[in-house]
């Protein structure tokens, strides 16, 4: 039986780059967000996770679903599949890493190999829509 890992992610694109975060103890960057707890809605999960990870408050009234992606996670046992429901939203506050995040960075399309397969699907759609630039450059 395939395990489904159900996640929600915040898509923040500025100047042709997307915000990504690397959790403490991991060497992979992800689109910020995480797994729902209990019966949380997508929006409740999104607001909680982004506050926990990046110390900003998302504006729930501005949240907009931009797509849901699914991909196999080859590194996980049992053939796990990750589902990532993606939302944009405005925020208040200053982006800063929390105790659970080691580093945040702004990635262009050239950085696509640095994120997991499900995140790569989002990168592809953003590039096709002209929102994500290709040049390699300084992250950060």
Automatic annotation (TrEMBL):
It comes from Streptomyces nodosus. One of its GO terms (molecular function) is hydrolase activity. The keyword Hydrolase applies. Keywords: Hydrolase. The lineage of its organism: Bacteria, Bacillati, Actinomycetota, Actinomycetes, Kitasatosporales. PROSITE patterns: NUDIX, NUDIX_BOX. Residues 1-128 form the Nudix hydrolase domain. It comes from the Bacteria. CDD domains: NUDIX_Hydrolase. It holds the Pfam family NUDIX. This is DNA mismatch repair protein MutT.
């Amino acid at each position: 039986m395939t395990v489904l890992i159900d996640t929600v992610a915040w898509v923040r694109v500025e100047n042709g780059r997307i915000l990504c975060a690397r959790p403490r103890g991991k060497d992979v960057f992800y689109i910020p967000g995480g797994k729902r707890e209990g019966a949380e809605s997508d929006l409740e999960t999104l607001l909680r996770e982004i506050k926990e990870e990046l110390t900003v408050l998302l504006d729930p009234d501005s949240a907009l679903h931009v797509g849901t992606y699914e991909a196999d996670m080859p590194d996980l046992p049992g053939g796990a599949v990750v589902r990532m429901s993606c939302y944009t939203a405005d925020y208040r506050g200053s982006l800063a890493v929390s105790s659970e995040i080691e580093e945040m960075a702004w990635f262009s399309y050239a950085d696509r190999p640095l994120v997991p397969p499900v995140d790569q699907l989002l990168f592809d759609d953003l590039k096709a829509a002209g929102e994500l630039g290709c040049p390699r450059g300084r992250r950060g």
